Amino acid sequence: MTEFWLISAPGEKTCQQTWDKLMLATTRTNNLSTNNKFNIPDLKVGTLDVLVGLSDELAKLDTFVESVVKKVAQYMADVLEDSRDKVQENLLANGVDLVTYITRFGWDMAKYPIKQSLKNISEIISKQASQIDNDLKARASAYNNLKGNLQNLERKNAGSLLTRSLAEIVRKEDFVLDSEYLITMLVVVPKTSYADWQKTYETLAEMVVPRSTKLLFEDNDSGLFSVTLFRKAIDDFKHKARENKFTVRDFQYNEEEMKADKEEMTRLSTDKKKQFGPLVRWLKVNFSEAFIAWIHIKALRVFVESVLRYGLPVNFQAMLLQPNKKNMKKLREVLDELYKHLDSSAAIIDASMDIPGLNLSQQEYYPYVYYKIDCNLLDFKV
């Protein structure tokens, strides 16, 4: 279960008492959740007006940064194509798995100096997330173009004889080249019609060179035959071949073109391999950056909301709960019972009710400060 509930409640006589009460209610007797203290440093409070405005801005920023985190994670899965099972081990925050990072969260003073105002810290995070988002778009676009071009070429060299490129199959000696009068045609014949082909190909048009057919290649359904005829009989031959369900492929042997195609495929394949390593490294680094930023936003939101709800001086305990999946409903009931005295109106508010002026659609409302952190990041399609 990788869902966490980040909550806060006001300090009793001490914050430790608030913590002990929660532990007693949720873990010591009934194993409803695994809990950790969530340490938020002494941030600059600022004025009430700023906090109210910031509360809304942080809600939007939370949604945006979460989307960036998920996009990077999803693109990592796309890039790792054949080794998707390795995705999880590349999705780390500060070099540790996500659960470890969240449960041992410590504020990054170097990235987000607490001497700065809350608004400044949120702007640092916003700029950082926007940069990652823009870089991801550019890198993904370049890599996807390369991958798409390579796949198109690979598709041309695979599949049915009716559609695939024949350059890899035929050889120079299979053709009459540089003749003013003669030309070699390539014909796809269903396996069930080989006998018919051998019987009829010389009579499909006048001027077909007798005994000139050769089987060059087979796939599961068909064979590719060569046949030599006079140029003036081409249209006649194509028409009669079609009537007999033989498919003439439009193909001219051109060594220069075939060589260019081969070189293009080698170049694209080499470029893709060259870009793969640096791209995965970039995704790892920036996933970590985005995820860390996201959890710092959660910390900022808990701080701002706790001050707005519980007042000054700052005195609250932030706590991280990892609910036991089977007991989530029971855990919610225990928390409501434990904290209902904090806000009597909360008991009658249901998130499904539409109350003017209360924006509950995005966030359920409880008597305690509550934010969900969901680490199931790969259910998301970009």
UniProtKB/TrEMBL annotation:
Protein name: V-type proton ATPase subunit C
Family statement: Belongs to the V-ATPase C subunit family.
Cellular component terms (Gene Ontology): lysosomal membrane; vacuolar proton-transporting V-type ATPase, V1 domain
Superkingdom of the source species: Eukaryota
Summary of subunit composition and partner proteins: V-ATPase is a heteromultimeric enzyme made up of two complexes: the ATP-hydrolytic V1 complex and the proton translocation V0 complex. The V1 complex consists of three catalytic AB heterodimers that form a heterohexamer, three peripheral stalks each consisting of EG heterodimers, one central rotor including subunits D and F, and the regulatory subunits C and H. The proton translocation complex V0 consists of the proton transport subunit a, a ring of proteolipid subunits c9c'', rotary subunit d, subunits e and f, and two accessory subunits.
InterPro entries (alphabetical): ATPase_V1-cplx_csu, Vac_ATP_synth_c_sf
SUPFAM superfamilies: Vacuolar ATP synthase subunit C
Record key words, sorted: Acetylation, Hydrogen ion transport, Ion transport, Transport
Function: Subunit of the V1 complex of vacuolar(H+)-ATPase (V-ATPase), a multisubunit enzyme composed of a peripheral complex (V1) that hydrolyzes ATP and a membrane integral complex (V0) that translocates protons. V-ATPase is responsible for acidifying and maintaining the pH of intracellular compartments and in some cell types, is targeted to the plasma membrane, where it is responsible for acidifying the extracellular environment. Subunit C is necessary for the assembly of the catalytic sector of the enzyme and is likely to have a specific function in its catalytic activity.
GO molecular function: proton-transporting ATPase activity, rotational mechanism
CDD domains (UniProt xref): V-ATPase_C
PANTHER family in the cross-refs: V-TYPE PROTON ATPASE SUBUNIT C, V-TYPE PROTON ATPASE SUBUNIT C 1
